[in-house]
Amino acid sequence: MSDSASKPRPQFRNLSISQILSYRLPLAGKSSILHRASGALLFLCLPLVILPLFALSVTSPDSFAAMKAYTANPACKVVLLVLLWGYLHHFCAGIRYLTLDLHIGNDKITAQKSAGIVFGVSLALTIVFGLKLFGAW
């Protein structure tokens, strides 16, 4: 019998701040936490980053040129890339949770695979859009 099967897991896991990073979560748990974090990131950055850039871009052609010059800064592009990843991960994980609500892929193996697919697809899309953002093509 393996070690993991012989040791019962504790029922109550009172984690301190120092233990959170060393706690082993399954991939589906990490996907769930990042889904919540990306949703919070998008919610908090909407009035601070996204709406001001949109308002600046539609005011006049001169303000659009100013916004275009502002977003040409590499630091601004990194911020936009993080927001883009947050959106793409939140979108892909949201589709995963909608399928779970329809009782598709509720078993452990399929849930782990779908969490891996969420990470793979969101990172692949982020890389593709990031290459476009940084002018690779």
From TrEMBL:
GO biological process entries: tricarboxylic acid cycle
Record GO terms (molecular function): electron transfer activity; metal ion binding
Comment on bound cofactor: The heme is bound between the two transmembrane subunits.
Localization (cell): Membrane
Entries under InterPro entries matching the protein: SQR/QFR_C/D, Succ_DH_cytb556, SuccDH_FuR_B_TM-su
Pfam families: Sdh_cyt
Record-listed heme binding positions: 90
Cellular component GO terms, alphabetical: membrane
This protein's UniProt keywords: Heme, Iron, Membrane, Metal-binding, Transmembrane, Transmembrane helix
Transmembrane parts of this sequence: 40-58, 78-95, 115-134
Subunit structure: Part of an enzyme complex containing four subunits: a flavoprotein, an iron-sulfur protein, plus two membrane-anchoring proteins, SdhC and SdhD. The complex can form homotrimers.
Family of this protein: Belongs to the cytochrome b560 family.
Function: Membrane-anchoring subunit of succinate dehydrogenase (SDH).
Protein's recorded name: Succinate dehydrogenase cytochrome b556 subunit
